[in-house]
Amino acid sequence: MLIAAAGLACARPDAPAATRDSHTPPGPPSLRGPSDSLIPEGPLGAAIGRGRALLAATRESLPDHVGNGLRCVSCHLDAGRRQTGSWVGVYARYPQYRARSATVETIQDRVNDCFRRSMNGAPLATDSPDMRDIVAYLWFLSRDVPIAAPQGANRLQKWAALKSDTVAGAAVFATACAKCHGPDGQGTQIAPPVWGPKSFNVGAGMARVRTAAAFIRDNMPFDQPGTLSDQQAFDVAAYMDSRQRPDFPDKINDWPNGDAPPDVAYPTRAAQRNGTRVPRGRSP
Ligand code: HEC
Ligand code: HEC
Questions:
Q1: Is residue 13 assigned to a domain?
Q2: Is the overall model pTM greater than 0.70, yes or no?
Q3: 198: Cβ below 6 Å to ligand 2?
Q4: Where in the sequence is the domain holding 249, given as residue range(s)?
């Protein structure tokens, strides 16, 4: 309680400067997570700090587990404190039933989903020190967030009303994205690949047009977030997700109950079996 009250006080303009933390981005305290100054001293604090370092220097630290040019915080911006792609509160949302696997997943399972798909790599052993420290950081970011069932997928519903145009998306990419991500989406010194062999694979959440549109709308262009219209974000997401990227052979086993969302661009065994919900292509 004391902590929450202190967080609120920090957000007030009249709060003493000494209580503000320069590492904490602006926004309501519940969304931006706890201040780094609350990381405790001692072994627990060391684990939290090491977890955060793994999430930021993922390839360098865990080369056997990363198969592309991304790091965890490439999509979970501001070390997981940015609203769209946030890890704030994530520890309190697991275990969670997920339709994609049709199982109850622990937070370790969910971390490994991103290793296998978003990072096109290999999962960590759930009892490894690396996993422990990543979970310690996610736990820290979820401090004071009550355990609760996750929100439904309805937040992506607004994109259902739009129709994507990949030709228009290519034009948006050339003007608003290519200078950082490269004309062929291959990445540059300042930004990672968005398609091609070093990108996330086809089974990743970012390979779904609605998920990508929400991320791009809120977070890109990196230096001018929020400047694209919904339509521009949707078009460029559809263009990006229509490009070549690594396959994820296990995708055939996704949504085994045949309840894949409409922006999933690949056939699953369940959908083929049921003859229902066969994806109509990449434009939902
Ligand atoms: C290519 C982009 C991308 C990369 C790289 C990435 N993720 Fe994710 N991650 C996502 C998306 C998209 C979601 C789904 C977000 C949602 O449902 O709102 C997600 C969800 C998660 C979640 C669950 C969030 C929740 O609220 O349920 C965790 C935990 C997570 N990622 C951890 C990681 C870790 C650890 C890494 C690095 C090993 C990583 N991610 C790398 C895109 C990415
Ligand atoms: C000013 C440079 C810049 C511009 C312009 C820019 N980005 Fe990014 N983008 C970044 C950076 C930096 C990251 C995060 C890199 C990191 O921390 O690893 C990022 C991350 C991403 C990611 C998640 C990581 C990945 O590579 O898959 C996607 C998707 C993305 N940008 C798409 C876009 C799109 C689409 C546009 C155009 C609308 C765009 N970006 C414009 C710099 C830029």
A1: no
A2: yes
A3: no
A4: 153-284
